């Protein structure tokens, strides 16, 4: 049996983000600026990794102070009641040489639901200071209404202001401990 290896996020080379359609035709991007994550693997093999992530809901940022204030309000994240976003992996399965399927429980706005994310591995690399790094691109889609994030506004031309579909996009670099 391989030795257990612990990995932590390299925050200077990681971005946890999302994209949502605005007015049904423009993508608005945002990110979570404050988070922690831990990953535990058998040696350097990420198949069946144990993964946990916790993000501070009040660190959601979209580049617009007015929009961010609205997102943090009771209309969306309601950070006073629900200060954290949590993800706990239930499986991390190798699909092929560079790709994995990540399933887990996402808790947001007081609701926990299972999500499935696609993960592409860029492999392992040693940096100039001798640290072993692993890099992954993560993507997936959720329906925000499944977590009780239901606020919206109708458009005069039909449709809605904010899409129900939220695309999760993350670039993650881990450091072997």
What does this structure look like?
The protein is mainly beta. The chain has a single domain, classed as Lipocalin (Beta Barrel), CATH 2.40.128. It is built from one helix and eleven strands. The protein has one helix at 65-72, and strands at residues 4-9, 15-22, 26-32, 35-42, 45-56, 60-61, 84-94, 99-108, 111-126, 132-143, 162-176. The chain has an eight-stranded antiparallel beta barrel. β2 and β3 (26-32) form a beta hairpin. The protein is elongated. The two termini are 19 Å apart. The mean pLDDT is 91.
What are the key terms here?
177 residues; mainly beta; Lipocalin; 1 helix
Task: Furnish the topology, listing elements before pairings.
Blueprint: E1 4-9, E2 15-22, E3 26-32, E4 35-42, E5 45-56, E6 60-61, H1 65-72, E7 84-94, E8 99-108, E9 111-126, E10 132-143, E11 162-176
Using the CA coordinates, give the radius of gyration.
Answer: 17 Å
Work out the number of β strands: 11
CATH topology: Lipocalin
CATH class value: Mainly Beta
> What's the assembly state of these chains?
single chain
CATH superfamily: Lipid/polyisoprenoid-binding, YceI-like
Low-confidence stretches: none
Helix content: under 10%
What distance separates the N and C termini?
Answer: 19 Å
CATH level-two architecture: Beta Barrel
Largest sheet: 8 strands, antiparallel, barrel
Domain Lipid/polyisoprenoid-binding YceI-like: 6-175
Pfam family, one: YceI
Organism: Lacibacter sediminis
Protein name: YceI family protein
What's this model, at a glance?
The chain has 1 helix and 11 strands, in the order ββββββαβββββ.
